[in-house]
TrEMBL record:
Residues 63-308 form the ABC transmembrane type-2 domain. The lineage of its organism: Bacteria, Bacillati, Actinomycetota, Actinomycetes, Micrococcales. It is a multi-pass membrane protein. The keyword Phosphoprotein does not apply. Residues 1-41 are annotated as: Disordered. It comes from the Bacteria. The chain crosses the membrane at residues 64-83, 103-126, 155-178, 184-209, 216-237, 280-302. GO terms for molecular function: ABC-type transporter activity. This is ABC-2 type transport system permease protein.
Length: 309
């Protein structure tokens, strides 16, 4: 197996690879395409072993930690501090209202899932492709399955930590009341797991779009930012024009935010949704559909080396 730590040019990704143990790259003696190379338990074992490596690399990157891990928490604090003086948000006359922080918490949780999966992986994989990291990994016994298991596992680890931090700060510092029923937390669990998995696969698929690692941030961040504005994260979804709501409904973030609102907001707030209901069945259908789309596109477009390189 080739040594991935002796390249003449030092980059952030290279530094991360330099700390990788042998089992984080591949299994010595395993030949790609050979009888052992197709061993699925081996691929799963290597993929799981890479999760810790990828997670350490994530937290060693200050920009990734700020823009994907802490950003939703910072925005929740800003919205709460800036708009709390205007009073509670009420869905209609005689209905139960909630504080500004409580209203924006579901959107920030959904944004965190999108940032952890789509933005993080799209930029990270495109950067690794641009600086030659993927080319070097392609020369090792590491399979794409193991590589992506490590990436997706890292997204789940960081998304869980991020959501836990958001809920901890919301409940203790911002005084936001959290759900008390097992039914609400069960809904939270499946929306969260499905949303994170969908975001991760869509991020892998989107990583094929930037033509270089240097352009990855410029390509990915505007897409993610626009989706947040039209999907009810920063603006109240009910106040957006109908045509904008229809466009947002074509993408997964709108459904993740809607699912989270069903968990954290009183039932009266469902009248503000596009069809006056939480539509959790449609939330599941939309997220599963995007998960399949992300999986198929990732499978068709992933290359260790760009074809036009």
């Amino acid at each position: 197996m080739s040594d991935t730590t002796t390249t003449p040019t030092t980059t952030t990704a290279d530094a991360r690879r330099a700390d990788a143990p042998a089992h984080a790259i591949g299994t010595r003696g395993t030949r790609r395409g050979g009888a052992d190379g197709g061993n699925r338990p081996g691929m799963l074992r290597v993929g799981v072993s890479r999760i810790g490596f990828e997670t350490k690399g994530y937290f060693r990157s200050p920009d990734a930690v700020f823009f994907t891990f802490l950003f939703p928490l910072i925005m929740l604090g800003i919205f709460t501090a800036a708009f709390s003086a205007s009073g509670d948000i009420v869905p209609g006359p005689g209905m139960e209202g909630v504080s500004v922080g409580a209203y924006y918490l579901p959107g920030m949780l959904a944004a965190g899932m999108l940032l952890s999966g789509v933005q993080n992986l799209a930029v990270d994989i495109a950067t690794e492709k641009g600086d030659g990291t993927l080319k070097r990994l392609g020369g090792t016994p590491l399979s794409p399955v193991s590589y992506f298991l490590g990436k997706i596992g890292q997204v789940f680890v960081t998304a869980v930590l991020q959501a836990a931090l958001l809920l901890l700060v919301a409940g203790t510092i911002l005084g936001i009341a959290l759900p008390t029923t097992s039914e609400a937390w069960l809904t939270f669990a499946w929306v969260f797991v499905l949303g994170v998995a969908t975001s991760a696969l869509c991020g892998i698929a989107l990583s094929a779009v930037p033509r270089s690692g240097k352009s990855a941030t410029a390509v990915v961040i505007p897409i993610v930012l626009v989706l947040q504005f039209i999907s009810g994260v920063y603006l109240q979804f009910s106040q957006l024009p109908e045509w904008m709501q229809n466009i947002a409904s074509l993408f997964p973030l709108k459904w993740m935010a809607q699912g989270m609102r069903a968990v954290f907001l009183p039932d009266d707030f469902k009248v503000l949704e596009q069809h006056g209901e939480w539509d959790l069945g449609w939330v599941a259908i939309a997220l599963v559909a995007w998960l399949v789309i992300g999986l198929v596109v990732s499978r068709l477009t992933f290359r260790w080396i760009r074809r036009d390189a």
